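Ticket 4471: requesting a sanity check on a complex prediction with nicotinamide-adenine-dinucleotide. Repro inputs:
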Amino acid sequence: MDRYQSFARSGIGRFVVGRLGLPDPHPLRRHSPGKPPLDGPVLLGGGDGGRLADAAGGVAKSMGLDVLTAPADGVRYGALVFDASGIDSVERLRELHGFFHPVIRSLAPCGRVVVLGTPPEQAESQVAQRALEGFTRSVGKELKRGATAQLVHVAPGAEGAVESTLRFLLSGRSAYVSGQVVRIGPADVAAPADWDRPLAGKVALVTGAARGIGAAIAEVLARDGATVVCLDVPAQGDELSAVANRVGGTALQLDITAADAPARIVDHLSQRHGGVDVVVHNAGITRDRTLGRMDADRWDAVVAVNLASQLRVNETLLAADALRPNGRIVGVSSIAGIAGNVGQTNYATTKAGVIGMVDSLSRRVEGRATVNAVAPGFIETRMTAAVPLVIREAGRRMNSLSQGGLPVDVAEAIAWFAHPASAGVNGNVVRVCGQSLLGA
Ligand SMILES: NC(=O)c1ccc[n+]([C@@H]2O[C@H](COP(=O)([O-])OP(=O)(O)OC[C@H]3O[C@@H](n4cnc5c(N)ncnc54)[C@H](O)[C@@H]3O)[C@@H](O)[C@H]2O)c1
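Returned structure tokens:
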């Protein structure tokens, strides 16, 4: 909990925050093994012609959640899930109001709203399906006490590919994700033998793993069963070894911008592990200056680490056929790459470029691998601890959850992309930003 959050939870703090209408950051309910995924049953609704209610109900039950199909008195719902995929006219959008209006105030703290729809361009009414986006994002902004709202567009034929995504969204794994639109396409999906260790037998490479978000990614992928190859620069060798030991993985010390880095990475993965299943391009740097004051070295350094080296690694991996079938490439973008940011022309260029990498590569590898990215907002790390206080406080509060996220929140989203059952999740950029006001 940050200091403001502790204050807001204290007796006097509650009074002051309430009277002045200040941000009220509710402690987020994160995933914890053995704990139920949500506090309360799922209320499931759906309009005529919907394709997804059965699949959603089945997933919720297999997660151990109770599923209600009609509102019940006095119940605090863990989630409200509405299948809007059958909505084929603007008039029928009224069904959203009909379902949510009577129950939205009975959502438990840290509850979930999930709207299921059809990708607009494949829908009977493109207008009505596109309209779901404005609805869901507004609900996300209205919800209080750590609750979140998302829209999932499921392509016709992809009804069987939704489980990993719903398990992510209907649990504390998505604690800091809100106001997002996820797309799922058709894919052959086999359920893992064990949903708690879906990456058992898989090999994952995480760059920039010595600290911060990268260390959290290594931990979460290892928790999910992967053997993790932790990569960072030699100068971070001690911290890198500590992370690798903690997660039972191996350390690979190298600078990803070195000319021979892609070949060394591919050699290491091929010789030691016979290939790789999950590649997470997390290493990133900032060298902030407004454009008029930015020397070319600052520009070049950021482009080299955050974008150019990743493209070279991808090409070398694919050329050597080192990415195994049903492989995963995950990029780490930033909301700065979506909204832009003062002093970060170099950084935002690279982070928007990561989104371009997702767009182009996801199409190229479709059917044999997926390529997605997270776009974190304000995450509590050394990078953000160095930001001046006033800007840091603004960054923390300017989102629907009124707080910064934790590295584990980014890592959980990456683990969802990495999941073998997420084969239909391809070409997505999902923000882990608590529905930040920036670039929304
Ligand atoms: N912290 C945030 O709020 C935030 C927000 C948006 C995006 N991100 C992105 O998340 C990622 C991780 O951020 P973080 O906050 O954990 O940063 P961090 O600075 O704590 O960690 C980055 C790691 O990358 C490593 N690295 C840098 N250059 C490298 C190179 N050439 N070769 C190998 N490793 C290299 C560093 O040594 C470091 O261990 C970055 O891509 C960052 O841009 C962070």
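Notes from triage: Residues 296-319 form the longest helix (24 residues). Leaving this open until the requester confirms.
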